[in-house]
Amino acid sequence: MKFFADNLKFLRKKAGLSQEQLGERIALNRGNIASYEKGTAEPRLENVLKIVKLFNIELSDLLEKDLSNSAAIQEELEKMGLPNEAEPIPAEEATAHLKAELIDNRARLERFMSQSDDMQKILEGFRQFHKFKMSKSSDISRDVKNIADDYENLLEVMDALLLSHKELIKFLDESK
After folding, report:
1. Do 172 and 109 contact (CB within 8 A), yes or no?
2. φ, ψ (nearest 5 deg) of residue 158
3. What does the DSSP 8-state code read for residue 68?
4. Measured between alpha carbons, how far is 120 from 101 in angstroms, rounded to an integer?
5. Is the pTM of the predicted complex or chain greater than 0.85?
């Protein structure tokens, strides 16, 4: 929480809020906000998340970036829809940056899709190998049978995890 206190004060002032007004918006009192801004108290996680949501900012940015640095704040202020006194980014540069980010995000998503397909093939290979080994083992001990059952359960868990992974990728792809 290296930058939290300063960032909270900065964001509050940029939004034109008093400590009391900010407190009201996130169900805290003015004293809590003052203590957070002075760095004499650290908020509970649920309160940090309320602040993140209110200012529409990434948690890592709130905690780890110096948002008062004019080079770092342009993007954050635009996300929040607040006015910015820093030099604006030229439209061509901003457009090029956004296009590059979209292309990078698309490439990441495609990489995740490809990795998911590869994981599916590997999992199916493990399943077939297990079936083959079990079909060749006519006389197996109870311990080996228990291990085989555990292995089959593990394969089922991996199937469920992979399905969840694919659904998440699909959701991310559709939300673009």
Report:
1. yes
2. -65, -40
3. T
4. 29
5. no
